[in-house]
């Protein structure tokens, strides 16, 4: 959930002395007090730029962030102030320290509310219990008080009930400062010995990293589960790793090929997490990473028989109250005057938005996972076949992975502007809630109106590309569906030709992400490539080979990775691997771009003390950096498929070491895999961290990972000044470092398939 835009500060400042309430009150000072030093900010997201994150409200108060303020509809006729509350928990108070509470609020009918700082549980002893008169003026209110008792988890509560008439209460710019500076957040990084916490393929490279002050080589020892030493060697000092600012050494035990579980590596006094050596380490991940898509389907009940009771849930957004449904969705005001049934598809991420740009590349990479099995001699498709995955369509004679892709393809086609309308054939950029919703929230409980946002050229070309790929893959199974995909694709291509520069508004980010992209040359390239491979038509051929980005390796395969902003590589990967009418010299050109990019990623991996095949300019680890790593691994894996060269394969294996624990935080970023796995990712239903009755993310969900931008309140609170590869926290409210999305799990699933084939000895070793 990206932050909303800020608003100008409103209202004059009003100093209020707190009104004492007998028996409840601690020391309350009126006006500015000596000793009320500014101190650290204790309220998180007090300006609501992060939506409702960090705030809670009683069930009788429908509250949402409107125009940058938290607004609640207070019902008529409640008896007591505390019958309707907006609050925030986990506020640390220290006895004897002075604190200052400030906020602005408006009420549509004048009321007296209580602003309390108090115990969060019975007897709710208050350190501040102020009665504040609130009306339409919205002036700033300030109270200063001194805490009587230590309380690491106090509560700030605006008690706004007790009014005979209903009214709207809005609050903003809430700040509570004081006390001593909190201790600086230190991530728990466990052992300094870092390994792939799942394991290493029997005949693959095997390396690890140790964080140490030592400058000369140390001895490492590999022990089996019984404690017997199986190998020893000397570490290689690497100096200071710029991505973590740690002094590190690497070690290599590739020569060990005895398959077993429970190995550990010890350096000096320190032992890393246990791991396996074996051939079938990625079988489960291949399936789990794909199950992610079924779990996140919109418009269908998630069936306990397929995913277990814990993960079962009702269908979301099918028009059953309180949902306003995706079956009959209007446009944002002024955008169109028709309504569309855009039910189905996959939820993008932790939010319930559905975006054609991002949804398109995800469907494409799920299909590419399957398509690879058709053309890579030693890749076998059985494990993706009918009856093999968690999809309700199993047993229908169609490979399960295609059934899953079809759920999204159907949705993508529904997003196309109908014939006869202005911009017919274009695709709407996205559909999502009018306002940001809070966490937790089941899809079926989302009460927000849903809206279609304007069509864009980028979305239209995503539809063209995926529709074309759909047509060739579904042709053997469902000719009619394949024909429908192709028609949608070619119509989209025509519409994009007619409207080549309708861009998404970078400010259209309330209630959903923007996915704004101001360069669509790569989308044209990708769509043309897919259409050419499917149809062989000259127009598409020329659009590929006359494209300004063709031959420009950095544009097609940027160092930071293919992704929703850079889709050209998806087209090049298809041209390089799927048989088509391409000439031999053209094929050589495309493959040269691919291997040049793969050479760069492999070199980055060899250079990195953590083996990661990702080295963005200035170590600028971006939002979703783990997907950049994974997308680079796809390029490497494809280069290995095509050339058989070990350097590419080895860099994929090292990339997986990084993702599964060989990294500066000793973190496995994939839920359910490794001893120290991410399991509190940002998601509205998999929100166990907020509500223990809800599940954690399902196994096989990859977290976005380190992001130097730290654009959420938790990351800003905890991670300021972080080293690039350490800008990550496994907290559900850190959406900028710890979200999960379809476009990150799709490359994970591709890579897991590649590695499983490799381990099974099916691909060249
Ligand atoms: O993955 C997107 C990332 O590249 C952007 O920097 C970020 C901010 O615009 O948005 C990410 O996408 C989010 C989307 O806008 C809404 N759904 C959740 C996505 C993942 O965080």
TrEMBL record:
It catalyses: Endohydrolysis of (1->4)-beta-D-glucosidic linkages in cellulose, lichenin and cereal beta-D-glucans. The keyword Hydrolase applies. The keyword Transmembrane does not apply. Residues 282-751 form the Glycoside hydrolase family domain. Residues 1-35 form the signal peptide. GO terms for molecular function: hydrolase activity. Residues 41-161 form the CBM-cenC domain. Keywords: Carbohydrate metabolism, Cellulose degradation, Glycosidase, Hydrolase, Polysaccharide degradation, Signal. Its EC number is 3.2.1.4. It is an enzyme of class 3 (hydrolase). Residues 189-270 form the Cellulase Ig-like domain. It comes from the Bacteria. The active site is at 730, 739. Residues 224-247 are annotated as: Disordered. It holds the Pfam family CBM_4_9. PANTHER family: ENDO-1,4-BETA-GLUCANASE. Belongs to the glycosyl hydrolase 9 (cellulase E) family. This is Endoglucanase. It comes from Streptomyces zingiberis.
């Amino acid at each position: 959930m990206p932050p909303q835009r800020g608003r100008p500060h409103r209202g004059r400042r009003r100093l209020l002395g707190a009104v004492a309430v007998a028996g409840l009150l601690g020391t309350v000072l009126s006006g500015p007090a000596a000793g009320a030093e500014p101190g650290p900010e204790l309220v998180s997201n007090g300006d609501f730029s992060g939506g409702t994150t960090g705030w809670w409200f009683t069930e009788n108060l429908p509250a949402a962030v409107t125009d940058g303020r938290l607004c609640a509809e207070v019902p008529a006729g409640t008896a007591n102030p505390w019958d309707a509350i907006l609050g925030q928990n986990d506020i640390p108070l220290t006895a004897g320290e002075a604190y200052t509470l400030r906020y602005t609020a408006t009420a549509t009918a004048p009321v007296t509310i209580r602003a309390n700082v108090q115990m969060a549980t019975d007897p709710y002893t208050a350190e501040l219990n102020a009665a504040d008169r609130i009306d339409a003026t919205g002036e700033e209110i300030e109270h200063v008080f001194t805490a009587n008792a230590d309380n690491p988890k106090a509560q700030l509560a605006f008690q706004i009930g007790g009014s005979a008439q209903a009214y709207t209460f809005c609050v903003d710019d809430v700040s509570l400062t004081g006390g001593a500076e909190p201790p600086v957040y230190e991530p728990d990084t466990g052992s300094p010995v870092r390994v792939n916490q799942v394991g290493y393929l029997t005949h693959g490279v095997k390396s690890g990293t140790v964080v140490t002050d030592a400058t000369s080589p140390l001895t490492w020892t590999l022990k089996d589960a019984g404690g017997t030493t199986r190998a020893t060697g000397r570490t290689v000092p690497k100096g200071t790793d710029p991505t973590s600012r740690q002094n590190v050494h690497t070690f290599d035990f590739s020569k060990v090929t005895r398959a077993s579980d429970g190995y550990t590596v010890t350096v000096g006094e320190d032992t890393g997490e246990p791991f396996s050596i074996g051939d079938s380490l990625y079988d489960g991940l291949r399936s789990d990473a794909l199950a992610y898509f079924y779990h996140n389907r919109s418009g269908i009940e998630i069936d306990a028989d397929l995913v277990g009771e814990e993960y079962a849930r009702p269908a979301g957004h099918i028009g059953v109250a309180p949902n306003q449904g995706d079956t009959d969705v209007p446009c944002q005001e002024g955008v169109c005057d028709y309504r569309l049934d855009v039910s189905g598809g996959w939820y993008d991420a932790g939010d319930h938005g559905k975006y054609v740009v991002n949804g398109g590349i995800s469907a494409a990479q799920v299909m590419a996972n399957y398509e690879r099995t058709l053309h890579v001699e030693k890749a076998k498709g059985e494990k993706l076949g009918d009856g093999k995955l968690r999809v309700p369509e199993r047993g229908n004679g169609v490979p399960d992975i295609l059934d899953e892709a079809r759920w999204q393809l159907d949705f993508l086609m529904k997003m196309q502007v109908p014939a006869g309308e202005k911009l017919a054939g274009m695709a709407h950029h996205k559909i999502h809630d009018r306002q940001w919703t809070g966490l937790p929230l089941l899809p079926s409980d989302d009460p927000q109106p849903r809206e279609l946002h304007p069509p864009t050229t980028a979305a239209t070309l995503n539809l063209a590309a995926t529709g074309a790929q759909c047509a060739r893959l579904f042709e053997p199974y469902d000719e009619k569906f394949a024909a429908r995909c192709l028609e949608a694709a070619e119509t989209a291509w025509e519409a994009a030709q007619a409207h080549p520069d309708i861009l998404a508004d970078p400010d259209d980010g309330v209630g959903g992400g923007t996915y704004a992209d101001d360069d669509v040359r790569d989308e044209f390239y990708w769509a043309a490539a897919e259409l050419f491979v499917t149809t062989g038509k000259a127009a598409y051929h020329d659009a590929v080979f006359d494209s300004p980005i063709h031959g420009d390796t950095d544009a097609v395969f940027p160092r930071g990775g293919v992704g929703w902003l850079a889709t050209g590589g998806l087209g090049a990967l298809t041209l390089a691997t799927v048989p088509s009418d391409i000439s031999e010299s053209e094929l050589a050109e495309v493959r040269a771009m691919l291997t040049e990019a793969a050479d760069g990623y492999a070199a980055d991996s060899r250079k990195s003390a953590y083996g990661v095949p990702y080295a963005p300019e200035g170590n600028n680890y971006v939002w979703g950096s783990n997907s950049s790593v994974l997308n680079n691994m796809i390029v490497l894996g494809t280069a290995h498929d095509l050339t058989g060269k070990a350097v590419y394969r080895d860099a994929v294996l090292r990339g997986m070491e990084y993702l599964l624990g060989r990294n500066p935080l000793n973190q496995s970023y994939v839920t359910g895999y490794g001893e120290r796995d991410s399991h509190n990712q940002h998601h509205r239903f998999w929100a166990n961290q907020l509500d223990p009755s809800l599940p954690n993310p399902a196994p096989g969900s990859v977290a976005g990972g380190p992001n130097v931008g730290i654009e959420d309140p938790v990351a800003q609170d905890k991670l300021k000044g972080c080293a690039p590869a350490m800008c990550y926290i496994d907290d559900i409210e850190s959406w900028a470092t710890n979200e999960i999305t379809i476009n990150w799990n799709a490359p994970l699933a591709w890579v897991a398939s590649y590695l499983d084939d490799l381990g099974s000895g099916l691909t060249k070793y």
